[in-house]
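QUALITY CONTROL LOG
STEP: pairwise intake check
CHECKER ROLE: data steward
CRITERIA: each record must contain a sequence immediately followed by its structure tokens, with no blank fields

ENTRY 1 OF 2
RESULT FIELD BELOW
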Amino acid sequence: MYDLLPGLSVIEASSFVASPTAGLYLAQMGAEVIRVDQIGGGPDFRRWPVTENNDSLYWENLNRAKKSVALDLARPEGRELLQALVRATGQFVTNFPAKGFLAHDTLAEGRADLITVRVMGWADGSPALDYTVNNAVGYPMLTGPGPEPVNHVLPAWDLLTGSYAAFALLAALRRRDATGQGGEVRLPLSDVAIGTVANLGGIAEVLHTGTDRPRLGNTVFGLFGRDFTTRDGKRTMIVVVTHRQWSNLVAALGLGEAIARVEAERGVSFAADDGLRFIHRDALFPLFEGAIGARDHADLAAAFDAGGIVHSAYGTMADAVRDPRLVGDNPIFATAADPSGTSYPAAGAFATIPGDERRPPLPAPRNGQHSEEVLAERLGLSSGAIAKLFDSGIARPA
């Protein structure tokens, strides 16, 4: 947690990953993020993984440092309260549909400088999820050895969209500060996905070659990179991204003479050409398999570290949790008094700002924990008026 966004308040009405991620990152940098949910929790409130008491560890971690207001959004009075909160605050992040009671034009009535950042599935408003968008842009047909598609478990497009949404909100705020102009920013998952494909050269590659890239399994496209197994059975990934790393890797494995013979036979030099190392992997990989397979992992790791060679043994997520460098000694982690009552390392801001105090991660709120506070401060409602809302079930405290 850092205090880089003091005075910025954002209303968030969202669920699942992308939109809550935007709010999380803003909160981690010091913004006041007020998440408004249906009383009892939205559709992601019990999403797995869950504890024995059915508390969602997923929800608890995507909503750290936020405030929670619980309204009955099925009733007109609840929807009107959410609209009023958005107008009073002036900044809104959501993945609710572009039409309906949270349409930007509707919300901007009486608040022309309102900024809305809306996460969507497809640009036409039709629904999509990370996993279906990923299928549409073709990555599952590049992953693994084939021929069957291979889905990945990381919701990359959700996370990229959430990050871009936080950035887009700050960019829109900068424009408003300069011009007074509000507006809506729409971020479809599909556009983030296909735009990323384009930024990485994928569209140009397919149109230039006239075909899809071949399936390469764990081999890195265009570089010398692949997984190898050591003598003691450790499977490790090695990737060469600089010419110096290549030279040091060859030296560490004692392969200089063998590689020189391949170069002479094929009339090439691998010293300063990533592409040639990739093209001639059929001759290089067996040499590395033999050299790596003849040594234990600890011995190789020490030699690779000394040479600045990028490598990592494959491990499980349980291994990562027990790794001091990743978790135990990592200052982004600390425990928090979470609603689930479960104690574990919680992540704060990923960025480190030298010289600026890092505050520990804050817990997620309980559903409705800040209803009274926010309705009073943002809408100026009296305690009596708030009590009536609670009694009628339009709003609810924790």
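ENTRY 2 OF 2
RESULT FIELD BELOW
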Amino acid sequence: MPSFRTLPLRRCAALALIAATMIGAMPAGTGRPAITGISHLAVYATDMAASDHFYRVVLGARKGPDPEDPAGIRYYFNPRQFVEVLPAPKDHGPSMLAHVGYTTADAAGLRTWLVAHEVRDLTPVQRGPGGDQWFGGRDPEGNRVQFVQPGSSVTTAEKGAISGRIIHVGHAVHDRAKQDGFYRTLLGFRPYWFGAFHEDKVDWVSQQLPDGRDWLEYMMVGEGSDVSLDKVDARQLGVLNHLSLGVVNMQTAVTTLYRENRLSPRHDGPQMGLDGKWQANFYDPDGTRVELMEYSAVMKPCCSPFTAKDPVP
């Protein structure tokens, strides 16, 4: 079963799916502090040294301490965006996804707003030595989410990083309507694009953050998608639960990795995605996919037009 957007382009049942994509696109109310971008993806690792080589050497991210968990390590692509690598707990299960972090202008204010909208089981706001503030919770399917108010305003790419910009994250979703109730209706995420391998399916649903151009990609699993529940094992979850780094020119980025011998043992591409954007995939030692993607489409996408402006470098 193919795992990402790289089969020949096919037309989808666009009108019906666009209508479905628009459902729940309005925020619950005014007064919500801005949610502006992707902060980070946190993943589990069974071998911290092997993960260090992948994120620090292959991807060129800057290594730093983890103020949230002394056992963890952060790998920065710019001072505000990073991958957080945590030692895998014994009971972590097949998924290596720990949580997704989003950037907000006001962590304390957003937590207060969520409580006022009857979101429960939120952690207290914590403060890091660099000035970051954050709190956490869960989405309707139990995925851990964090909202981070960065202590730094600097977004310059880290020297040596293959990319200085995280443009999207994605994770497995089983019940689109339930997730839309949280991300779209409550938080105000906005439709961006959707696609599928086959006309009668929906495999990927992308929605930009309410106040920025980064996006969250539902990787649909189960009824209505091409990925059946009985085929979702640890390897497949590593493909579904992923991080995407923006590159201006895919040929230049991949040539750099080849020339400097910085390829991960498992990789594929470059190839053209069904969204019309060049992409290449690399995998950390535990199978979590890191996707390089150009910022804008160079071909007409299948299934849906883009309904919001692309992120910028």
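INTAKE CHECK: passed for both entries
DESCRIPTIVE NOTE, ENTRY 2: Residues 7-27 have pLDDT under 50 and may be disordered.
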